[in-house]
Amino acid sequence: MTSPYIVKSATQPDASGQVLTVTPESAGWEYVGFQIYKLGIGQRLERQTEDREVCIVLLSGKANVGTKHEQWRDIGKRMNIFEKTPAFSVYIPSNDQYSVEAVTELEIAICSSPGKGTYKARLIAPENVGVLTRGSGPVERLVHNILPEDQEADSLLVVEVYTPGGNWSSYPSHKHDTLNLPHESHLEETYYHRLNPEGGFGFQRIYTDDRSLDEALAICNEDVVLVPKGYHPVSSPPGFELYYLNVMAGPVRTWKFHNDKDHERLIPLFMK
Asked: Strand (E) positions, 115-254?
């Protein structure tokens, strides 16, 4: 039986190109929405943002992207996620609209959360993405900060992470499910997983201190994991590189996490 915390991608896109969707209603939470589209050359996607802000991440391929007031043509450079070059992305505020036309075969992620229309639509080019290595040894991973909290948005946070085979990520275990600033923020989170090679698997655990939630999830290529609360470490087996795209949002746009007390002794060893 599939866990309620895993959302599977469809084997084939629907007429609009959609292969996966998560809405606040389907997830049973308030903030984060997430969709994946696979578009053929010349195929178009057009949507209104309504009361939500959106970040379109070009996972692979090239596109023309437009909003009410802006146009960006032939953007995109990465033809495969595991090239590990930062993605082109586009931020669009609420009460706007967007169109995406595939110049090549195209995979896009539509990340969304409640918006106030505070900021203008903008292109987030690869040179605007913060690239860093986080952790060391068996918890080392490559991070692409697409829409971190020091960049303009109303509630949305977006980041890509590459975890080498045999390593752990989102580790030592941490959570962000309680609004207790400045110590901890409340953020819902989705993990969109990709594996290289595709036929592999990974693991993600979601658990709370009292173990009222305690799920050990076997994740496959193109799965989304829902993290409504609790700690949520990820493991990539040897021989299979793991990518994930994180979307986070909550009542306050800041990422403040609380470490599992049983793992705090590991922080000086691995998070230098």
From this structure: 122-124, 130-134, 141-147, 157-163, 168-169, 174-175, 177-180, 184-186, 188-196, 202-207, 214-219, 224-227, 234-235, 241-249
Question: Cα Rg for the chain, rounded, in angstroms?
Answer: 18
Q: What tokens does 245 get?
A: 């795209």
Q: Which two tokens stand for residue 9?
A: 């991608």
The token pair at 82 is 């595991």
SS3 call for 150: coil
Point out which residues pair with 39 in neighbouring strands: 106
Q: Which among 147, 102, 94 has a CA at the least distance from the CA of 125?
A: 147
DSSP state letter for 268? H
Question: Cα separation of 225 and 212, whole Å?
Answer: 18
The pTM assigned to this predicted structure is 0.96
What span, in angstroms and rounded, lies between the C-alpha atoms of 82 and 254? Answer: 28
Helix (H, G, I), strand (E, B) or coil at 127: helix
Taking only the tens place, the pLDDT of each residue in 140-178 is: 999 999 999 999 999 999 999 999 999 999 999 999 999
